[in-house]
Amino acid sequence: MSISLRDQLLKAGLVNEKQAKQASKQQQKQQRLEKKGQVEIDDAQKRAALQAMAEKAARDQELNRQQQEKVQKKAEAAQIKQLIEHSRLPKLTGEDYYNFVDDKKIKRLPVNSLMRNKLSSGSLAIVRHAGGYEVIPREAALRIQERDAMRIVLLNAPTEAPDADDPYAAYQVPDDLMW
């Protein structure tokens, strides 16, 4: 049978009998207090526990923020979809097309002459929706632009009335020439 550390220290002469008894009493007292929960946990353990709690709180806060962002983006997408579907103009079929640029590619949309004039003047806008394009009024396009500017494909600036002092007012340059 192996000899306990206490006995080994006594045998080596490093501690005397009184010190050994005092150490064992202290150890028993410590165990009794630990069982009752009255003893203070080591300061290093306390700090580690507090740090772990702080890290967990920070992680939970970050996850919560990410979830809230996800919910907010989903709500914005639903609002945009609803805005487009409630304010879009009916699709036309015809031989007259309005050409516009989307992602460095020229796209075309069937329009009539009134719609062409309103698109050119900025009264109407073209937006991306469900893999295609929709024509909507300017007010709806501005509200969509607040939420997601990438959905707006074409929104011309509204045309202003020419100045009274402009010497070239009688010579308008068309910006929507038909080729």
TrEMBL record:
List compositional bias (Basic and acidic residues) regions by residue number: 31-46, 56-70
Source domain of life is Bacteria
User: Which Pfam families does this entry report, sorted A to Z?
Assistant: DUF2058
Biased composition range(s): Low complexity: 21-30
Membrane-spanning intervals of the chain: none
The record lists the organism as Pseudomonas cavernae
Name of the protein this chain belongs to: DUF2058 domain-containing protein
Matches recorded under InterPro entries: DUF2058
Region: Disordered, residue numbers: 18-70
